[in-house]
Amino acid sequence: MRQSSVIKKILIFLFALTVILANSEQKKEMALHHFMQGEFLMNQGNYALAVLEFQDAIDFDPNASTIHVSIADAYRRLGKSNRSEDHLRIALDLDPEDSDALEMIGQLYLSQKKFGDAEIVYKDLVKLVPDNIEYLFTLADLAQIQKNWDLAIDYYIEGYRVNSSAINALEQALQIALTTNSFDRAEEVCILLLEEDPESLKFLETIRDLSLFNQKYQVALEFVNRIEKIQGSTSEILIQKSALYEELKNPEKALNIMFEAFEKDSVNINVLHRLVTLLLDEEDNEKAILYNQRIIDIFPDDPRGFINHAVMALSGKKPEEAILALRPHVGRFSKDFTVQYLLGTAYYQSKDYDNAEIHLGFALTIFPESRNTKHNLALIYDSTNKWGKSDVLYMELIASDSTDAQAYNNYAYSLVERGEDMEFALELSKNSIRLSPKSAPYLDTLGWIYFKMDRIDEAIKVIKESLSIDNGNPTIQAHLEEIIKAKSNPEISKVIQAEIKD
Q1: What is the DSSP code (8-state) at residue 335?
Q2: Between 455 and which of 252, 426, 450, 496 could a Cys-Cys bridge form, CB atoms 3.0 to 4.6 Å apart?
Q3: What is the CA angle 215-217-218, rounded to 5?
């Protein structure tokens, strides 16, 4: 009796299990039916009815992540993002590695501008599907949105490494690097691009320019040589090579290359101008004059020949010759800053302050930010007792650059020579020495101020320090002699102080 009872129970259990399995299979079939109907309606664009079909499918099979992803898609298309997100979360709880669910929730976060959440999701997608470069590009876009430029470049490079045909990824990385002035990263990307296309002039020229900006002159020279092999030797390339050899402290090679360029194109003004510049640097003035005359003869409407002539004259302390070189042509080059500046400087050195003021004024109008022009004009105003104008320029120079030691010193010297505002002059002078403590002229100014303030011992000490730096300077020597004379004859000092008070 006991044995038959056990057999009976086993048979009842098996029967019940068969019924359960049958019901389960039936439910799955029903779920599949409603799911397929929902997909059909989705394809027809009838998202509302599709939701109803998917909901019926979920009722029959609530643990199928695929159904939850589909109903989430339908809700998303209906604009019901919260419901869509709810079903996507259920799908991911059921299957954390469901890439469709992850991608959809990632897109949902992007549409909601939840960029941090989207970034987390796409990082998970990259782990699941590492060869999908679109996920990496989305992460790169997210990095750009969050202004994390380095990370964006990293993702684009990673995308290229996943699929080497994705050259556009590197080009995008290069664009970001150049736009954000990340020149080291730009150079890194250019090297990768050149590995793909070693003869691309666009990328060769880009990395040449980047190397120049980063002062990697030897690297820049290597790329110029590569460009030359592809393009052939041109005047422009030879000028570039010459400039690089000059930066690499090889002036002889720089000059020889320009002679080579001249042999190829003897009527190229850029070649001639660079040749003259290098010859002047080498102090070979005779040859410089010959080549510069060629510029003047062949290119009379280009100011560079006349400018070179003036520069040579001024460097030889012949301002009158510089005036003769420029004055007949100044009308044709009235808008050229360098012509006006050099002519004004030549007049200043000739002590023709009226003409110097006119032409330096023109130069400043052309280039209002020229500090050298402002300095020279201020000196002219000092020389012609137009102190209101010089004071304005000195204050502009100091306000725009608090490290301009020359402006502090010249302003201080101008004040002390006028006998005005000695305390302010002292403060200005101290600022100039703080910036340039070993400048003999600046120390001389300070010593002269101390003298005018009747601080004789301090004046002698500072002037002697100035002479120890520049013992051949006649102005400093004259100042020291006058101070020592005043110390030995107190009446002289009293006269000086009386003049200052008046």
Answers
A1: T
A2: 450
A3: 140
Indicate the SS3 state at residue 195.
helix
Homologous superfamily in CATH for domain 130-232: Tetratricopeptide repeat domain (1.25.40.10)
Identify which of 179, 174, 169, 113 has the alpha carbon closest to the alpha carbon of residue 142.
Answer: 113
Cα-Cα-Cα-Cα dihedral sign, residues 416, 421, 423, 424:
negative
Distance CA 156, CA 275 (A): 45
* Nearest alpha-carbon partner for 274 in 216, 282, 297, 208: 282
pTM of the predicted structure, to 2 decimals: 0.68
In this prediction, residue 24 carries a pLDDT of: 63
| pLDDT tens for each residue of 431-478 | 999 999 999 999 999 999 999 998 999 989 999 999 999 888 898 999
d(CA 141, CA 119): 10
Q: Which long-range contacts (CB under 8 A, 24 or more apart) does 356-360 make?
A: 356/380, 357/381, 357/384, 359/330
Coil/strand/helix, residue 295: helix
Taking the CA atoms of 492, 496, 498 and 502 in sequence, report the sign of the dihedral they define: positive
Q: Which CATH superfamily is domain 17-129 in?
A: Tetratricopeptide repeat domain (1.25.40.10)
What distance lies between CA 230 and its chain's CA centroid? 29
Confirm whether 17-129 and 130-232 share one CATH topology. yes
Residue holding tokens 């000196």? Answer: 379
- Break the chain into its structural domains and give their ranges: 17-129, 130-232
